[in-house]
Amino acid sequence: MPRTSRAGNGDAIAIVGGLGVLLSELMQDIRGAMDAIDGLDDRTRSASFIPLQRNISRGERFADEFLAYGERQHLVTEDIDIGSWLQAFATLLRSMLDRAFEIHVDVSQHCPHCLADPRALEHALLHLVFHGRGSMPGGGRLGLSANRVRLANGNSGVSISVSCSSAAGPTEPLQSGLDDPSTARMLGLGSARGFARQTGGSLKALSVSCGTSMTPLLPKVPSG
């Protein structure tokens, strides 16, 4: 199993990343078997194909989560106008969440474009939104904001905050949850952090008096 020297939970990250690689390879082998099934007669193929396809899709989703947590995703970074991107993301959320959730977008006037894989960014933010939704069973305010920040390496970056607030308040210590891949919910948070770190940034998670705030910090698009 591959190992890397990372601070804190480095061994867990390496192990989960290795699991992601193995699971991804397994899915490729199964798809090869599906090609063989394709050569069978229609009736036999139909009976074999449907449950196999369902399990492959589930396996691929888990592989993606493991690879993200282990910071081993295949990322294709692009120049993202985060203001326009967050507005479109908010529209997507309004179609997915019920009206008990108020969605607000706030992007600072001088916020630069960020450098990230848009598909992986959407996947990571969805994890943060759905984790926050768990602390708001009766609904609440969901805020999406972006600002210019200074990254730990001294370079300029972009912070993208997902804040959730309700009268109930937070239900668990978020930072410890980031290091625990034992449940699907915690694996989702860990994969969001893995995406941010692999992109060249980090993920900050805070429990506040009225809810939660989770902020991926991503590099900005280089000048020139």
Write the layout of secondary structure elements.
Elements: H1 10-37, H2 42-69, E1 78-80, H3 82-96, E2 101-107, E3 114-116, H4 118-133, E4 140-150, E5 156-165, H5 174-177, H6 184-199, E6 202-208, E7 211-219
Parallel strand pairs: 2-4
Antiparallel strand pairs: 1-3, 4-5, 5-7, 6-7
Briefly say what this structure is.
The protein is α+β, with helices and mostly antiparallel strands and 224 residues long. The protein contains 6 helices and 7 strands, in the order H-H-E-H-E-E-H-E-E-H-H-E-E. The protein folds into 2 domains: 60 residues; 142 residues, 2-Layer Sandwich (Heat Shock Protein 90), CATH 3.30.565.
Helix content: 40-55%
Low-confidence residue ranges = 1-8, 173-177
CATH class of the largest domain: Alpha Beta
Average residue pLDDT: 75
Overall, the morphology is: globular
Cα radius of gyration in angstroms: 19 Å
Number of helical elements? 6
Question: In what order do the strands lie side by side in the largest sheet?
Answer: 2-4-5-7-6
Q: Estimate what percentage of residues fall within beta strands.
A: 15-25%
The span between the termini is 41 Å
CATH homologous superfamily (4th level) name of the largest domain: Histidine kinase-like ATPase, C-terminal domain
